[in-house]
């Protein structure tokens, strides 16, 4: 083997070793990124589940009677997005406006449970399965209503958004399937009432 051939062989060997090291480093970086993503997802899952459990803790104070009063609302507000909190404010304005302008008629949002599918509300709330997206999440709510020998159960769902302050509840989606169960979601009900008040076609 000539000197030139020996130098070429050494160069190829060094290049191969460098490429292997680069590939190994790239693989290590990808593994680290995957581990970090899994850790972040697990952290998000814990945070979303905790938000669902906290909602169930607050639920007995906001169950039934239409819009929550000032004290229950104070407990609920830290759990909500600004948009959902604003929607509840809008519902309050619609209720008050209806009382002023049509005192003999029943105003909206003064009775029934707004936060579950059942008008009477649930006697038990348990947070269940969590679904995660990049900026959105969901928590299944296992509701149960028991009175005497009457018992029924169903699932509704919280939708959450990732905000600068962490995960916050953005809506309650109704899942009841019986006759006269609330349909759609709480925010869609408020939007429909607002559209009706303004003489507009409610959003789909």
Highlighted features:
single chain, 204 residues, 4-stranded antiparallel sheet, 21% strand, elongated
Structure, explained:
- The relative contact order is 0.12.
- Helix 3 packs across helix 4.
- The model has no long low-confidence stretch (mean pLDDT 88).
- The protein has helices spanning 3-62, 70-76, 82-101, 186-198, and strands spanning 124-132, 136-147, 150-163, 166-173.
- It contains 4 helices and 4 strands; from the N terminus they run H-H-H-E-E-E-E-H.
- Helices cover 49% and strands 21% of the residues.
- The longest helix is centred in the first third of the chain and has 60 residues, at 3-62.
- With 204 residues, it is of the alpha+beta class.
Strand content: 15-25%
Binned, the helix content reads 40-55%
- Rg calc: 27 Å
Average pLDDT over all residues: 88
Number of strands: 4
Output the strand order for the largest sheet.
1-2-3-4
Shape: elongated
How far do the termini sit from each other? 81 Å
